[in-house]
Amino acid sequence: MRKAFHGNLLYFKADPNLDSDALVHLPNHVLMTKNGIIEAVKHFAEVTTAEKFELEWHDYQNQWIVPGFIDTHIHYPQTEMIAAYGEALLEWLEKYTFPTEMKFDDPNYAKEISSFFLNELLSNGTTTALVFGSVHKNSVDAFFEEAEKRNLRMICGKVMMDRNAPEALQDTPESSYKESKELIEKWHGKKRLSYAVTPRFAITSSPEQLQKAGRLLKEFPGIYLHTHLSENKNEIEFTQQLFPKAKNYLDVYKQANLLTKKSVFAHCIHLKDEEWNELAHKQCNIAFCPTSNLFLGSGLFNLEKAEKMGIDVGMGTDVGAGTSFNMFNTLNEAYKVTQLRKGMFSNESKKSLSPLKAFYLATLGGAKALSLDNKIGQLNPGMEADFNIIHPAVNSLQKLRMKSANTIEEQLFVLQILGYKENITATYILGEKYKLPHDFEK
Ligand code: GUN
Ligand code: ZN
What would the pLDDT profile of 267-294 be if each residue is shown by its tens digit? Predict the structure, then answer.
């Protein structure tokens, strides 16, 4: 099936802070797809008469056509406990997170929440995510089944956790190895699904379990590693007590051979220089989760440092510590994190997060952090046709404000700060419009 989408194409071909030509803005262009893959991009004037007749035509003039958003860190079992009051990380885990995650031993419940979660992501224009399951193997089966039904490119893994958590949520080094392996064999590489070996964080895994995680990475090359790193000061202190021989937090993971090009570490707020160097050296990736970091009071991620070190960064919503599934909201809070750093640390440069860099991080930046930039994140021929149609002004305030936004950069900034899910007027997966179930309210 060949289709044509007529609108204003907008995407990034590089990091706009490193390449002044990175933004690709193509007004009055047509994105052509064939069987879910982008076939061509042309100016409307270059479309042939035959193409006008042969292709299924979709008119989105005056709207933007942008790549689907990519969320590089999120927990699907925490959907229902988003907005839990008053605690920092370790207390929040104990009081709210662990009791909620216990419910996922029920496969029917896991299916119900997986479905809700994916609809919520899609209603916010996020088409690919790196997702934590719960400790229960069936939670990941349920998630992949729902993702497969929707033809999504998704990455997920079963939490590995054998200590410092309620008994009902603990596995063992052996059972976590066995169950992860079974899930990898069943799901990794099936359609658009990939597996991430997912030890929760150093505190909840014994050294033996982390070794098993490393063994899985060795046995299944190409698999992801997904965990948390250096989010909260008390977390770091407890980790040092549990691993007294480790040189630093990252060293705990290094000792278990968990540092690869396909490793994604969420947060990385309080890293020492030696940890930054090691992450760069091993070409590891970071998920920047601003709504979560502000909500839990964890700290302010140093995005500029990551850029200087050449470390790939993607945006993470980190729901349920994160407070929104929405990428505009997440980029809005990311901007404020850079503003706060500017105000608080006088020895750093005076750069605020630009709207170009922000939307780069939510698309191609995320794709690079997940080693998927050959498939998603841009609107190039040969890539998978996952994209959003965005109306930059859908309410009175946005319309008023956009009147005086004269450049594409300023328009993107207004969207970053004032945008809602309502600005996403359609989301396409492999060239097919995603239809939310009739009872799902956007
Ligand atoms: N560290 C370990 N587990 C979690 C979690 O569920 N959320 C966040 N934000 N940090 C964690
Ligand atoms: Zn998290």
Answer: 999 999 999 999 999 999 999 999 999 9
Domain parsing of the chain, residue ranges = 2-67+378-439, 69-369
Report the CATH fold assignment for 69-369: TIM Barrel (3.20.20)
Same fold, 2-67+378-439 and 69-369: no
The pLDDT tens digits of the residues spanning 191-246 come to 999 999 999 999 999 999 999 999 999 999 999 999 999 999 999 999 999 999 99
Q: Is the ipTM of this complex over 0.90?
A: yes
162 vs 318: CA distance, rounded Å: 22
The position carrying tokens 């009902």 is 168
User: Of the ligands numbered here, which is closest to the C-alpha atom of 91?
Assistant: 1
Q: Which residues of 61-88 are buried (b: 16+ CB within 10 A; e: fewer)?
A: eebbbbbbbbbbbbbbbbbebbebeebb
Residue showing tokens 């510590």: 321
For ligand 1, atom 11: residue with the closest CA: 228
Report the atom number in ligand 1 closest to the C-alpha of 228: 1
d(CA 353, CA 176): 40
Report whether residue 265 contacts ligand 1, using a CB cutoff of 6 Å: no
Would you say 2 and 57 are in contact if contact means Cβ atoms under 8 Å apart? Answer: no
Pairing mode, strands 424-429 and 387-390: antiparallel
DSSP string, 222-289: T-EEEEEES--HHHHHHHHHH-TT-SSHHHHHHHTT---TTEEEEE--S--HHHHHHHHHTT-EEEE-
Q: Is the pTM of this model over 0.95?
A: yes
Q: What is the largest CA-CA distance in the chain?
A: 71
Residue 75, ligand 1, Cβ within 6 A: yes
Residue 197 is which amino acid? V
User: What's the CATH class of domain 2-67+378-439?
Assistant: mainly beta
User: Separation of 289 CA from ligand 2 center, angstroms?
Assistant: 8
Question: Helix (H) and strand (E) counts for the chain?
Answer: 17, 16
Q: How far is the CA of 5 from the centre of ligand 1 (A)?
A: 40
> Does residue 249 have its Cβ closer than 6 Å to ligand 1?
no
